[in-house]
Amino acid sequence: MDAITRIKQLGMPRKNDELWTFFPVAKIPAPEFPDVCACEEDFSKETDFAALLPIAQNARTMVQNIADGSEEMALLKCNNDFGRTVLNVGKGAKASFEILDNKVAHSVSAERFDINVGEGADVEIFFANPANDLPLTFRHFRITQAAGSQVRFSAIERGNGISRVSIDGFLQGPGAHFEIRTLNMLGGTAESHHRLHIYHESPETTSTQLSRNLLDGSSRASYDGSVIVGANCTKANSGQLVNTILLSEDSSVSVKPVLKIYHDDVECTHGNTVGELDAEQMFYLVSRGIPKETAKKMLISSFAKETFYPLSDSPAKKRLLQVLGNG
Amino acid sequence: MLSIKNLKASIEDGTQILKGINLEVKPGEVHAIMGPNGSGKSTLSKVIMGHPAYKVDDGSVELDGKNLLEMEICDRANSGLFISTQYPTEIPGVNNVEFLKMALNSKRAYLGQPEIGDDEFKKLIDEKMALLEMDERYRDRGVNDGYSGGEKKRNEILQMAILDPKVSFLDETDSGLDIDALRIVANGINHIMSPEKAVILVTHYQRLLDYIKPTYVHVLRHGKIILSGGPELALKLEEQGYDWIEEK
Q1: What angle in degrees, to the nearest 10, is found between the helix axes of B149-163 and B179-192?
Q2: Within a domain: residue A289?
């Protein structure tokens, strides 16, 4: 079944669709589709509207193959409203991909990334785009990982519109590791929605999810994160943590952790905190003579930077901390 | 210098912790405050600095004639008050040296002075870290982040040395310190101390007072100073505890 047929079959996202629980679905304009789908792949099992949208719009596909054992750094930028990128990372390769914004401010833009990571490969994917006014943006990632591979996904979102990042990750080989660190710094009426499904399909696979939100104005964020551990996945390990600081009375966050575990010998955790700036930390700073507004900025900055400090030195860490004002 | 008169303060549920503190601290003096757990010693420093968990019910606190209780917290600090709490707060992500420079420049701005230059600040911090025998790790870490109890106390005295306050209120600075660290920290405090400054030490033990000689020793109990004396009072308290005071 091609993407156009499938997306028409699914219909527009609805509030009662569990993939779109927190998203303002009424704000998605009904798209028109071409008569013929240029992509012949079978999408009959795809369930996410946003994953299908670029393909159903016959988006241009960019394919990049990274050879076994090689090292690659690349900038990925979609120049149209809709785009698809396929990255095939060879065995033992090391790759760093930074995704840049498509700044064409049309009513809706959607990108899809298919990332296939070979055995023992090490991949980082990140974006830290400047604050923009794109009204409605979708980014969907389908990531498959072979044995012993690592993927680190990091992002800072500061836009003024509504964005949704969806990730379907498949840890298919023993020892594969997926890690995501995201930071939303939102104000005004901005919204950021994350939807993840991480499938542990092999023993000793590990995944960590850290999402942090700094929400001001009447901004909204949501985190809908599912971890699915298969029946034979001995020693699988997964951790999910969402930390939110609400800087205003009208900002809000919604979090939905889901664990589906079909094996006993696994360790899976999740946590969620929502609060204001730490009062003791604030007192400590001002008691050293630092004015309250400056102290507040210091604490916000420290909360943001902490998201990415644990990353090992890499282009992603350098870029993300640079965006946060660390040189 | 620091004049505390009839200071009464309570916590949110209305429980009054300080029930009329009177204390006069003059330049060059070292005051030791001792007392049983829960008597209000830690509360006193936080109330003077303006911790939001406490409400002042009555009394006044003046530093060089200025009413501290009417000032913003940062202004109290920049006017020359420094407090070190029993459990210094950890602030991961705020670099220790950048924090120190920010604090110093805030004070200089308050006093109408220009910001300190990079070279001058480096020289200052190098000198104070050497005084306190602190290693380089303190520079790159977050404020008190992951420090041991002793490291935190040493870092507090580093801040005191950099900010050069008129009055320092040090709450159980000796707790968590091994013998060598106690000597180093005490020597640091003595070095920072001058005839123009004053120190108030909260301690449970004579050992700190072996290094820092107090001018006066006070006993705080049930939210009031119930007895004051000279250095010999600390020795007597160490020998006999606090019960004899109430008997008296």
Answers
A1: 10
A2: no
The string of pLDDT tens digits covering residues B172-213 is 888 878 888 888 888 888 888 899 999 999 988 888 888 888
Cβ contacts of B103 on chain A, cutoff 8 Å = 285, 288-290
Question: Is residue B207 in some structural domain?
Answer: yes
**B74 contacts on A by Cβ (under 8 Å):** 286-287, 289-292, 295
Tokens 């200089």 identify what position? B108
Q: Which residue of B has its CA nearest to A297?
A: B94
Kindly report the nearest CA distance between residue B1 and chain A, in angstroms.
Answer: 19
Q: CB distance A290–B103 less than 8 Å?
A: yes
* Whether this model's pTM surpasses 0.90: no
Provide, as residue numbers in chain A, all residues whose Cβ is less than 8 Å from the Cβ of B106: 288-291, 294
* CA neighbor of A225 nearest in space, from A281, A148, A185, A169: A169
Range of the domain at B144: 2-39+49-221
Q: Report if residue A86 sits inside a domain.
A: yes
CA distance to A155, A191, A229, per residue, from A271 (Å): 20, 22, 18
ipTM of the complex as predicted = 0.94
CA–CA separation, A165 vs A188, rounded Å? 20
Q: Mean per-residue pLDDT for A235-247?
A: 96
